[in-house]
Design goal:
Length: 275
């Protein structure tokens, strides 16, 4: 049973009881004792306004005073039950509510009607995120994933298995990346064909040149039977740091470097990590 205290003043007025009424057929409305000043009418025998009051799926069958007293119950209104949903979806997705399909940002109202006549209203506040788009650009010897749309921060997955925004390819070929935003909205696959690594690297990269130790604390040694013409050292940003003919090189700053070795038969690039 629900009850509510409401202050009323002389004269006609409407009050909101804010009761939740389940479907049923045996309800009573009443007032607490000491409130006889409220207007009421004794309908008497034979009056056409006899209980029950049937209001949609609800039936009021009596008063707590007696079955003959009608207090202020002449125009009772029962409003439908309202549910408010807040939804967020990715661009290209949709939601279906009561057979209606929605795929754009907005506020939508749907009405469900039960077999017993009790209506329910569902209000949906829908937000559709902008599309997540990804592109790959070359930055020195690196490939960068550039993402627009959606909601940052983004996560990445490359064809190489790496998950950073920027990667360093070690061989020519096709690379792809997929970006995902914080709402799990996924971009289309972006592709990039790498051709800037000198030809011949794939054939001799591992067999003809050895750079050790790698990773290193700073000093690296280059061992090869090839005739070396020169050696260039690049930063991870692609900046040329030094050119040498020495077979040992001191790298005194922690980070990732690229060693480009020019021989009589090929140009070879090796990546070195300094801890």
């Amino acid at each position: 049973m629900e009850d509510e205290t409401i202050i009323v003043y002389p004269g006609q007025q409407r009050v909101n009881l804010n009761f939740t009424i389940p479907v049923g057929n045996d309800f009573q409305l009443g007032i607490s004792s000491g409130n006889s000043g409220l207007y009421r009418s004794n309908a008497g025998q034979g009056n056409s306004q006899l209980y029950p009051f049937n209001i949609g799926p609800v039936s009021i069958t009596g008063s707590n005073a007696s079955d003959q007293y009608y207090y202020f119950f002449y125009d009772v209104e029962i409003t439908p039950n309202i549910t408010i949903n807040t939804l967020r979806i990715c661009n290209g997705e949709s939601v279906t509510i009561n057979g209606n399909v929605y795929d754009s940002t907005g506020v939508y109202t749907d009405k469900y009607t039960a077999s017993n006549g009790c209506d329910s209203i569902v209000e949906t506040k829908l937000t559709v995120d902008t599309a997540v788009t990804a592109q790959i650009s070359q930055n020195g010897v690196n490939l960068d994933a550039n993402v627009n749309g959606g909601t940052s921060p983004y996560s990445y997955i490359w064809s190489s298995g790496e998950i950073s925004q920027s990667i360093t390819p070690l061989a020519n070929g096709s690379y792809w990346v997929i970006a995902t935003d914080t709402n799990i909205c996924i971009s289309d696959t972006a592709f990039y064909v790498v051709t800037f690594i000198p030809s011949g690297v794939d054939d001799i990269l591992n067999s003809d040149i050895d750079i050790y130790p790698n990773p290193t604390d700073g000093l690296i040694n280059i061992m090869t039977d090839l005739k070396i013409e020169k050696i260039e050292v690049f930063s991870i940003e692609g900046k040329l740091l030094k050119t040498t003919m020495e077979s040992y090189i001191l790298l005194d700053v922690k980070g990732i470097y690229f060693i480009k070795i020019f021989s009589e038969s090929a140009e070879i690039i090796k990546r070195v990590v300094v801890n």
